[in-house]
Amino acid sequence: MAYDEDLADRIRELIAGERTVTEKKMFGGLAFLLGGNMAVAASGQGGILVRVDPSDSDRLVAGANAEVAVMQGRPMPGWLRVDTEHLRTRRQLSAWVERGTAYARSLPAKR
Fold first, then answer.
1. In this structure, what CATH number is given to the domain that contains residue 73?
2. What is the pLDDT of residues 20-45, one digit of tens each?
3. pTM to 2 decimals?
4. What is the tally of structural domains in the chain?
5. At what angle do helices 90-106 and 5-14 cross, to 10 degrees?
6. How far is residue 71's CA from residue 20's CA, in Å, rounded to a whole number?
7. 55/46 Cα distance (integer angstroms)
């Protein structure tokens, strides 16, 4: 399954003001990176993949419509998957994009 291009456009619109944003195809989707650190991706499995502080994963999953992403059969704290049905409004999507971009901004830039 290819990533949702409309969803990618909506993400792109929300992060348009970021100075160091780049786009890269990865994880079967389109990732948006800040300073070389992934913030959020339009996932090839549908919905989005959001990078968050691993210590916040359980709290965010318990209080929201998200789940810890599973990659190659292993749960990956710090990577959350949010299904498209929970991203219908700008407000829903922007909350997750802001979480991902805030965490990516907190990390040292990659060269």
1. 3.30.1460.30
2. 899 999 878 999 999 999 999 999 99
3. 0.92
4. 1
5. 60
6. 27
7. 25
